[in-house]
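Need tokens for this chain, all 60 residues.
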Amino acid sequence: MNLCYFKNLCGDESGAVTVDWVVLTATLVVIAGATALAVNEQTQGLAGEIETYLTDTELG
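Here are the structure tokens for all 60 residues:
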């Protein structure tokens, strides 16, 4: 291999967009996971409160 090959390889930016998209997608996946976790915890708490209310309410 000659020096010209390495010079062209270092100057080639064709994969830079792919790297940007991978980083962007990974960031969005992490944000979505954190959001789902937060919503899940809040939903379970609310479901517990509803269960308590329904259990304590007498019909009739």
